[in-house]
Design a protein that fits this description.
The chain has 219 residues and is mainly beta. The protein is built from three helices and eight strands. The protein has one domain: Porin (Beta Barrel), CATH 2.40.160.20. The chain is 15% helix and 60% strand.
Length: 219
């Protein structure tokens, strides 16, 4: 055996001995992750006839934020808040099939659902991660109107239910996600009493949102 071959053999033997005697430290398993989410998208009111009559449309922009904690196996808990507002005017509707008569008195409405849900992220740790969630909401409903120079304010909070599903893309610190969901807040106060004509008492609805997600792993 020549000197070069002897050197290679000796080096390989020393490396093998070092690996056996001093194995590399195992990478610590992730205990989970914390994510901060920015939300923006569209919300469609369940009280669609009332929304169309008072505001000219039953849908509009919604935005908010959330904080999510995910366990290593994909189970997660999330809490956050969204907001949705519309401006229109008071109307008169005699029956559900009657023509809507505009009264010219301004009216504005804001819905602010605070939500808490639990869910499961499939394929956790992969590039594309679908997920499903269910939970509850506490929706703050605020309505302001002005009739002949006199202001009328109305405010209430109602509990409801949430179901959602979506997909998150990315593995690093910054990720993107899209989510669709449905909320229901039954037996809530009506919008300018028009909802009583249409028999609409739910201030929940459907939403589609995009998310910008900032993720911090927990080890």
């Amino acid at each position: 055996m020549n000197a070069r071959a002897w050197s290679r053999t000796t080096a390989a033997s020393l490396l093998a001995f070092a690996l056996l005697a001093f194995p590399p430290a195992a990478r610590p398993a992730r205990a989970g992750e914390i994510a901060i989410e920015g939300l923006a998208g569209s919300f469609q009111m369940a009280a669609s006839n009332t929304g169309s009559a008072v505001f000219g449309s039953d849908s509009g922009a919604t935005f908010g934020g959330a904080l999510r904690f995910t366990l290593a196996r994909g189970v997660f808990v999330e809490g956050g808040v969204r907001t949705f507002s519309k401006s229109g005017e008071r109307v008169f509707v005699a029956t559900p099939s009657s023509v809507v008569q505009k009264l010219g008195f301004p009216l504005s409405m804001r819905l602010t659902p605070i939500f808490l849900d639990v869910g499961y992220r499939f394929r956790q740790g992969r590039l594309v991660v679908p997920y499903l969630a269910v939970g509850g909401t506490l929706t703050q409903y605020d309505q302001t109107s002005n009739v002949a120079g006199q202001s009328f304010d109305e405010s209430t909070s109602k509990a409801g239910f949430l179901a959602a599903g979506g997909v998150e893309i990315g593995r690093g610190l910054l990720r993107l996600a899209a989510e669709g969901g449905w909320t229901t807040t039954p037996n809530a106060i009506g919008i300018a009493d028009v909802s009583q004509v249409y028999g609409e008492k739910d201030i929940g609805g459907k939403y589609v949102i995009a998310k910008l997600v900032l993720v911090f792993p927990i080890r």
